[in-house]
Specification:
Layout lengths: L32 E4 L3 E4 L2 E6 L7 E6 L4 E8 L5 E4 L2 E3 L2 E7 L12 E9 L5 E11 L3 E4 L3 E6 L5 E10 L4 E6 L4 E4 L2 E3 L2 E8 L6 E11 L3 E12 L3 E3 L3 E7 L8 E7 L6 E6 L5 E5 L6 E7 L7 E11 L5 E10 L5 E7 L13 E7 L7 E2 L15 E5 L2 E2 L2 E5 L2 E5 L9 E8 L2 E2 L3 E4 L6 E2 L8 E2 L2 E3 L16 E7 L25 E5 L2 E10 L7 E7 L7 E10 L2 E2 L4 E5 L1
Parallel strand pairs: 3-10, 12-19, 21-27, 39-47
Antiparallel strand pairs: 1-2, 2-4, 4-8, 5-7, 5-9, 6-8, 9-10, 11-13, 13-17, 14-16, 14-18, 15-17, 18-19, 20-22, 22-25, 23-26, 24-25, 26-27, 28-29, 29-34, 30-33, 31-32, 31-35, 33-34, 35-36, 35-37, 38-41, 40-41, 41-44, 42-43, 42-45, 43-44, 45-46, 45-47
Length: 571
């Protein structure tokens, strides 16, 4: 029985489906790998060591020998730090292996393991190549990395600055100062964190003073942020101690606010600048010398719900700079709203069936930029993506993709036997109103290359090539189709499970026609390497099948036919 080699990513609207395989146990050491899969695989020991914040030189492995198709996939023990390019092609070929040292990859200090799995697409032979990565150094970062503060002599006021502390993994930290004129809060918190550093010159004579903030955790490491205080003659005076903007997320611009700037000495000319977590502050001045008024507009729409801080800094010509804190408080957006749910292959409204891949549309469903699913180490799709869940009578559905106006996922098998279910979407703890859905035993539909439900079907010829007018299949040979909506399978399966060695078949019989002519179904069941709910159908094209670039194809599961529209190319 042919195994599917077709990726599902182009079949779902903007919905990559990432599939991984269970790696073998890592070896204690990584010797060179030299194996033959119908072609030669020659890899050096793949051990990477890097310091946080820097990169690591890529390594290369060679595929040599006669031309053979190959595919590459990777698995990692924590996060997704391993990349191989290219990940498909024909031998001979040289592959580049890279690791990412980005703190966002979530790697803690110590040894991390992964595997590169190379497969001969023609013979289905595979070889696993172990990879290790060892991050060293401090896992923490500070923005800014140091502080330089200038205050007027005898000033009773303080300079308050925000430090953004990041790390490549969640950690509890303590923050302390080594001098009395410098304080930092909170003393204890978790990364990522915003620390407030307060510098006061009230008890200091003119001069330059040095201190430091120590940010530490045990046993992972520590970070020191140098602080320099220059006590100088007086500078500008602000009419307000700070600015606060508050709005619901999604609003574009809250009302503007103003700051009056005066001098505690002679008038002076000045310039101003802004900084913060994004380019959220827009400032204009009615004059470039004191007294003057600044008009401040905040546009923090790109920031997540929560409290964020920015800074406005005023610098006199040849004098003392002073800064003003600006706080953005963003409250949660409106709750999710469901617009409708469509068949994931045909993109038509339909009564859903157990295991059906669906596309759900609406508003406030998830992140604006969208997020694709990654399978768990148990080779199962997640049931939440950054706070987004889809609930069928309260049962969470496996998810493929979520963004602000669309979610792709699979109907839980627990809906079987029901006539209706209540559908709700949850995002960041907020629930949409319930919508009632009809349930059908099956809802068959075929995927198409254009992801429209019509025109060229997502099909493979018997030789593994993609079926198209340029690569038609011949009568007397097999063709492989992919669909969804087959309903219950002949043995139970967990929601969102990736199909491995155990194949399952629809509980109801499967038949097919090509160009209106009945054809033999060689296999209909779960597709190896794809999530349960993806149906693979292998058909034998007989001599009666009409020829053409767009011959209609239809499958039937039980008494329910697939939606019209998909075609294949036959010669």
């Amino acid at each position: 029985m042919p195994r599917a080699a077709l990726a599902l990513a182009p079949l779902f609207a903007a919905t990559p489906l990432l599939l991984t395989a269970q790696p073998p146990s890592p070896a204690a050491a990584l010797p060179p790998v030299r194996q033959t899969l119908g072609f030669n695989v020659d890899a050096p020991p793949l051990n990477f060591i890097y310091t946080y914040g820097s990169g690591s030189e890529p390594k290369f492995l060679s595929l040599s020998g006669p031309p053979q198709p190959f595919t590459v996939r990777v698995t990692t023990s924590s996060s997704h730090w391993l990349e191989v390019t290219p990940n498909t092609g024909t031998t001979p070929q040289q592959l580049q292996v890279s690791v990412s040292p980005s703190p966002t990859m979530g790697l803690t200090p110590g040894l991390h393991t992964g595997f590169i799995i190379i497969r001969n697409s023609a013979s289905y032979q595979e070889v696993s190549i172990p990879v290790t990565v060892t991050p060293v150094g401090s896992p923490f970062s500070s923005q800014p990395a140091s502080l330089a503060v200038t205050l007027p002599v005898g000033s009773p006021e303080s300079v308050i600055t925000t430090l953004s502390i990041g790390s490549n993994f969640a950690a509890g930290i303590t923050s302390t100062s080594d001098v009395p004129w410098l304080t930092v809060t909170p003393f204890r918190t978790n990364t990522p964190a915003l620390l407030t550093a307060t510098v006061s010159a009230a008890q200091l004579a003119p001069g330059t003073f040095n201190g430091k903030i120590r940010i530490a955790t045990f046993p992972e490491g520590e970070l020191t942020v140098p602080v320099t205080l220059a006590v100088v003659p007086p500078g500008p005076v602000f009419s307000v101690p700070s600015l606060q903007f508050q709005q619901a997320a999604g609003n574009i611009v809250p009302p503007a606010q103003t700051i009056d700037i005066t001098s505690n000495g002679a008038p002076f000319r000045f310039t101003f600048a802004t900084s913060g977590p994004c380019n959220c502050l827009i400032v204009s001045a009615n004059a470039n010398a004191t007294p003057a008024r600044l008009t401040v507009t905040a546009s923090p729409a790109a920031l997540p719900v929560g409290v964020h801080r920015g800074v406005i800094t005023v610098t006199p010509a040849g004098g003392i700079s002073r800064s003003l804190d600006v706080t953005f408080t963003l409250t949660p957006p409106p709750p999710p709203a469901i617009g409708g749910i469509n068949h994931g292959a045909t993109f038509r409204p339909v009564a859903v069936s157990p295991g059906l891949i669906f596309s759900l549309f609406g508003s406030n469903l998830g992140l604006i930029t969208g997020l694709s699913a990654m399978t768990s180490p148990a080779l199962q799709l997640p049931k939440a993506l950054d706070g987004t869940r889809v609930l069928f009578d309260g049962v969470p559905a496996p998810l493929l993709y979520a963004r602000e106006n669309q979610i792709n996922g699979l109907v839980p098998y627990s809906v079987a036997g029901k006539s209706t279910v209540q559908l709700r979407v949850e995002y960041k703890g907020q629930l949409s109103p319930a919508q009632e859905l009809r349930i059908a035993p099956t809802a068959p539909g075929l995927f198409t290359l254009a992801a429209t439900g019509t025109s060229q079907a997502a099909a493979l010829n018997q030789d593994g090539s993609v079926n198209s007018p340029a690569k038609p299949e011949t009568a007397g040979r097999a063709i492989i189709l992919y669909g969804t909506g087959e309903g219950l399978l002949d043995s139970p399966v967990e929601d969102g499970l990736i199909t491995g060695a155990t194949l399952r078949r629809p509980l109801l019989p499967v038949s097919a026609t090509v160009g209106g002519v009945p054809v033999d179904v060689l296999y209909a069941g779960t597709a190896p390497g794809m999530v349960a709910g993806v149906l693979q159908i292998n058909l034998l094209l007989n001599e009666k099948v009409p020829q053409g670039d767009a011959v209609p194809v239809e499958i039937r599961i039980g008494n329910t036919p697939s939606a019209p529209g998909p075609t294949i190319s036959v010669r």
